[in-house]
Amino acid sequence: MSVLKVLYVDDEPDIREVAAMALELDGSIEARQAGSGREAMQILDEGFDPDAVLLDVMMPGKDGPAVLAELRSRGFRRPVIFITARAQAHELAHYLAIGAAGVITKPFDPMTLALELRAVLARAGR
Predict the structure, then answer these.
(1) 11, 59, 110, 116: which has the fewest Cβ within 10 Å?
(2) 38-59 pLDDT, tens per residue?
(3) Residue 78: closest CA among 48, 57, 105
């Protein structure tokens, strides 16, 4: 099985660490972490080429939707999945309308995060 490279972007260091460890427990996921949209862009500029981006919606400075817009403006076409506690029906519809491949709700279960990620990617045809 090939390695699935994921960039996890979240301003909360503890959540980022738990998510990265949870994803890597899968054994075929390589997870890199970024604490902001700006840091995510630096990681991409340094050559990390993720198969998917897990992106927190609520972050100071540039929020998730703004980071998604910047990714798309830079030509990044791989799936971007929002991860958020803001998951009411109208919010979910908005995230999908602006180009998210899907949404994983917080708090997430570390034991099933990799499965949830793969399910969203499968629904997105990846």
Answers:
(1) 110
(2) 999 999 999 999 999 999 999 9
(3) 48
CA dist., res. 95 & res. 75, Å (int): 19
Q: Is the pLDDT of residue 1 over 70?
A: no
**Across 63-72, average pLDDT:** 97
- Pairwise CA distance, residues 112 & 49, whole Å: 24
Name the CA dihedral angle for 15, 19, 25, 29, rounded to a multiple of 10 degrees. -150
CATH number of the CATH domain containing 34: 3.40.50.2300
Query: Within a domain: residue 85?
Result: yes
Q: Is the sign of the CA dihedral 112, 100, 126, 32 positive or negative?
A: negative
What DSSP string describes 55-105? EES--SSS-HHHHHHHHHHTT--S-EEEEES---HHHHHHHHHTT-SEEEE
Match 């700006």 to its residue by tokens: 38
Which residues form the domain of 8? 4-118
pTM: 0.94
The amino acid sitting at 112 is T
